[in-house]
Amino acid sequence: MSGTAAGRTGFGVPGYAHPLLAPVEWAELTRPGTPLHWAVLNVADGPGARPDPHCLEAAGRLTNAGLRLLGHLDLKYGMYDFADLVCDAQRYVDWYRVDGFYLDRAPADRAELAGVRRVTATLDAVLDGGHLVLGHGTHPYAGYAEAADQLVTYSGPWADYRWSQAAPWTAAYTQDHFVHLVHGVPRGHLDEAMRIARWQGAGTIFFTDRSDPGGAFAALPGYWDEIVSRVGPGISE
């Protein structure tokens, strides 16, 4: 397993649409000055049955720019098939040269921890070291903190995020360990959202004003330039 840039807030991009449908979004990731921690590639609910030329091109651009690309795997809240999951992981590595995996719909309860640890240990071996993110979307049982590099402890709407609180056990870890993904954030509340992330110790974020059901993270936020400037060193107009 690996880490993010210590102490620096940056973006985790959880689900841009296929590069053929979202070429601008994928191009923006390599724009100079963008503080990107990682981006997730989801070809077809996984790596697909064969290499996709558009995804190969997008993956190559990120890799050549020295940026971290994660393959999307679905843990289905614990209802995954272990062998299929490992097979998909190997395809991501062989075809797209991913640097790690985003494990979506990760279970959060104590009973599933041993199974998730088996998965992350196996994926770490497949990668020969790499970056693993558990996409719980909520605060899981504390033991999960040692099972991956990062945990998504919030994924959801702004209306709930502004009243959310961090679990007490998270105070034992640095901000590099936690991810917040928030949709429906109005432009006028960006500063407030960033303060909440900072107070709760989340160093990797993705905020968007979009709130489309099932697709809020598929496209650029309407205020992309503004949030890049606030989080990172600024951009060239």
From TrEMBL:
One Pfam family hit: Spherulin4
Name of the protein described by the UniProt record: Spherulation-specific family 4 protein
InterPro entries (UniProt xref): Spherulin4
Organism (species): Streptomyces tremellae
Domain of life: Bacteria
